Amino acid sequence: SHPGIVQYRGQWYLAYHTADAPGGGHFRRAVALDRLEWDDAVSPARIRPVVRTGGVPFDATPTADIASHAALSASNEPVPVQYWLRALNDGRVRANPLPPDLWATWRPDNPPRQWVQYTWDAPVTLDGASLVFWTDQPAGSGVGVAPPRAWHLEYWADSAWRAVEATTPYTATPATENVVRFTPVRTRCLRAVFDASTDGRTYAAVAAQEWRAFATEPRAPRPHPARAPRTTRARSAVDCGT
Predict the structure, then answer these.
(1) In the chain, domain spans
(2) Are 194 and 132 in contact (CB under 8 A)?
(3) What is the pLDDT along the chain (242 residues), one digit of tens a residue?
(4) CATH superfamily for domain 63-240
(5) How far from 64 is each of 129, 130, 180, 217, CA to CA, in Å?
(6) For 111, phi and psi rounded to 5 degrees?
């Protein structure tokens, strides 16, 4: 955040805050200085792509979590600008997240049910998933962001959404990885469906920092999660195949 360009001894640099130093975060920041080059073949001169320096090295060790290979869509698209769908599969869970670090469904009139979906380019075999919920209200609230009253997973098969056969309980403890295991399914699409917390009059929103999807065959994660499709509305069932 707060970037700026500065010239020093004939060389230009891009200076900006980061949160990726050891022990860093939104409230304990570091400063990065990346070398900046100009393309003088055009007028006015254009900044060339900047090569980022520093940061935590990317870990390409194969993992059961294949969420980074999936595209994201959600029932509340277009998602408000302060909440990022792509936060769900960026591999990061922060102790004190700010809105860009999570996906949320908050709006003045929250509906009783919401969902978020992963879509892979080809069928995958899944046997588990986990969610890290973020809240600012307790369970049973009808305002703000509260843990869902209930949630479940569905997969696309035979032209219909079907509930997975869970072999462990669904939990919704805030700031904790809530893991659920299920009988393996082969699919291109997985949904997490949330029944909102309510006080009997209104409904709270749902928010999550990370949604992991566990496959039976580990893969190396992608450095940058797959981008969502250009459409701003929820993906149709036809995108999931048969």
Answers:
(1) 4-47, 63-240
(2) no
(3) 567 898 999 999 998 888 777 777 777 788 888 999 999 999 999 999 988 887 677 888 999 999 999 999 999 999 988 899 999 999 989 888 888 899 999 999 999 999 999 999 999 999 999 999 999 999 999 999 999 999 999 999 999 999 999 999 999 999 999 999 999 999 999 999 999 999 999 999 999 999 999 999 999 999 876 655 444 344 444 478 65
(4) Galactose-binding domain-like (2.60.120.260)
(5) 10, 12, 14, 7
(6) -80, 165
- pTM metric for this prediction: 0.83
3-state DSSP: the chain helix, strand, coil percent, rounded to 5? 5, 45, 50
Q: Among 183, 224, 235, which Cα is nearest to 91's? A: 224
| Tokens read off for 71 | 């595209």
Which amino acid does the sequence have at 40? D
Count of residues in the chain: 242
**Tokens of residue 120, six digits:** 């892979």
First and final C-alpha spacing in the chain? 43
